[in-house]
């Protein structure tokens, strides 16, 4: 059958998710409380946009990050050293102010018999980061998830991040980085292994 679509036609924008009226009303209330008029033209579509943006920031609630670690590779050619995924950029939001937490994570493990695809470590990170968080819990959740799923000899997670609730408001102190770490297995119990992984991470 002939395709009679005009190839030069502008494709339609994808349909946007419906946002319940109660959610939009809550955002209108906030805009009004902040001092603006939610009915003015520039703000009319803002409540729905904000709501969709928040669904995206909080996508992690819709997934169980453990699923990313279900596919393992056993043919590793005898590889038995540290695997490190370094400088993984991520974004989260703090549960106190719902302000952005922006930083990078370093995730390492010492495999026991099998490894996972490296992208999966970043997927686990994003699964927990796309929620309302404190950095300590984010660090612990990523490490615990890898520990439980892979049963490796060791896991090390180090996160360095800047919190907009400290830079853009409140104490307004830019340039501050919060560093958290969770060491498990040999990286916790064996000083030499701990030093080795921290040296690889560059801490
Ligand atoms: N430990 C920890 N604290 C965080 C994190 N994100 C934000 N905070 C802090 O959470 C605290 C909340 O303190 P509150 O006194 O309840 O809130 P606040 O009056 O807005 O505090 P200020 O930010 O100091 O203005 C602040 O000190 C934030 O800096 C995090 O990931 N971990
Ligand atoms: Zn905060």
From TrEMBL:
This is GTP cyclohydrolase 1. It holds the Pfam family GTP_cyclohydroI. It comes from Sphingomonas prati. Signal peptide: none annotated. It catalyses: GTP + H2O = 7,8-dihydroneopterin 3'-triphosphate + formate + H(+). The keyword DNA-binding does not apply. The gene is folE. NCBIfam families: folE, PRK09347.1-2, PRK09347.1-3. Toroid-shaped homodecamer, composed of two pentamers of five dimers. Pathway: Cofactor biosynthesis; 7,8-dihydroneopterin triphosphate biosynthesis; 7,8-dihydroneopterin triphosphate from GTP: step 1/1. GO terms for biological process: one-carbon metabolic process; tetrahydrobiopterin biosynthetic process; tetrahydrofolate biosynthetic process. Residues 24-201 form the GTP cyclohydrolase I domain. One of its GO terms (cellular component) is cytoplasm.
């Amino acid at each position: 059958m002939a395709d009679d679509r005009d190839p030069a036609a502008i494709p339609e924008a994808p349909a946007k998710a419906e946002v319940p009226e109660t959610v939009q009303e809550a955002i209108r209330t906030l805009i009004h409380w902040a001092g603006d008029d939610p009915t003015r033209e520039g703000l009319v579509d803002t409540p729905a946009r904000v709501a969709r943006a928040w669904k995206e920031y909080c996508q992690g609630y819709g997934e169980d990050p453990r699923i990313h670690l279900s596919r393992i590779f056993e043919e590793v050619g005898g590889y038995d050293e540290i695997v490190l995924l370094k400088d993984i950029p991520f974004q989260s939001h703090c549960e106190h102010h719902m302000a952005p937490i922006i930083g990078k994570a370093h995730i390492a493990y010492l495999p026991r018999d099998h490894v996972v695809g490296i992208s999966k470590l970043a997927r686990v990170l994003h699964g927990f980061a796309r929620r309302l968080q404190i950095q300590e819990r984010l660090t612990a959740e990523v490490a615990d998830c890898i520990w439980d799923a892979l049963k490796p000899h060791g896991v090390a997670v180090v996160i360095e991040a800047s919190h907009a609730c400290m830079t853009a408001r409140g104490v307004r102190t830019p340039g501050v980085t919060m560093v958290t770490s969770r060491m498990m297995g040999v990286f916790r119990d064996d000083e030499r292994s701990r030093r080795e992984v921290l040296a690889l991470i560059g801490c």
